[in-house]
Amino acid sequence: MNEVKKSTRRILILFAHPSLDRSEVNHPMAEAVRDLDDITLVDLYAEYPDFQIDIDREQQRLLEHDVIVFQHPLYWYSTPAILKEWQDLVLEHDFAYGSRGTALHGKIFFNALTAGGKEGAYRAEGFNHFTIRELLHPLEQMALLCGMTYLPAFALFDARSAVKEGRLSQHVADWTRVLEALRDGRLDIDTAKGLPRLNADLDAIIREV
Questions:
Q1: Which of 66, 79, 78 is nearest to 187 (CA)?
Q2: Which tens digit of pLDDT belongs to each residue from 18-47?
């Protein structure tokens, strides 16, 4: 495994779930990390129920953090609407991109998502025809245009059956483990880039204390 740089990173999770009372996975994931040191969780639908996003506040949050995460259920092969609104308003020219738009250079970006279909459905021969990585190409290009390091998604497939099948607690534990490793500089970024999803092989990318 490549050498892992020792540093402390501040993590910003932009959480978007328009039906939180019906969430069986994303809500427990959010609650598990809400009070962790150096992790800021922002519930966008709770904070901006009218979609009137405070651009200055959101840009300041970006400046204050080193890792940016979009956490959400996969809706129509993309994010819930408020995350698109957030991108359109917050990632302004000469702030996030453009010749003077270097505010996000060097930061890390990835999605933490839940998908209703089984993992095998997300491939060329599957029901959805594309991998999760391919479906998220617009967000990957967003990150690259903004000078950020893009990591594959932390993903849970067949999310509707996770509770019934007893997969939820391990997924939440893995989520906490990934965030703490990223925060503490114990996650091998170069190796993680090559995984199909960030939680495909945690032992290969995380150095334990």
A1: 66
A2: 988 788 889 999 999 999 999 999 999 999
Report the run of H or E that residue 89 belongs to, with start and end. Answer: helix 81-90
Q: What is the pTM of this model?
A: 0.93
Residue 22's CB is within 10 A of a number of other CB atoms, namely 10
What is the phi-psi region of residue 38: left when phi exceeds 0, alpha when psi lies from -120 to 50, beta otherwise?
Answer: left
Assign residue 106 the CATH number of its domain: 3.40.50.360
CA–CA separation, 44 and 47 (whole Å): 5
Q: What is the mean pLDDT of residues 180-199?
A: 95
In which band, very low, low, confident or very high, does the pLDDT at 167 lie, cut at 50, 70 and 90? confident
Number of domains making up the chain: 1
User: What is the rounded CA–CA span in Å between residue 101 and residue 20?
Assistant: 34
DSSP per residue, 10-42: -EEEEE--TTGGG-SSHHHHHHHHTTSTTEEEE
Residue 5 lies in a domain: no
79-135 pLDDT, tens digit each: 999 999 999 999 999 999 999 999 999 999 999 999 988 888 888 998 989 899 999
Angle at which helices 26-33 and 168-184 cross, to 10°: 40
In a domain, 3, yes or no: no
Handedness of CA 208, 147, 94, 88 (dihedral sign): negative
Range of the domain at 126: 11-205
Token reading at 135 = 């479906």
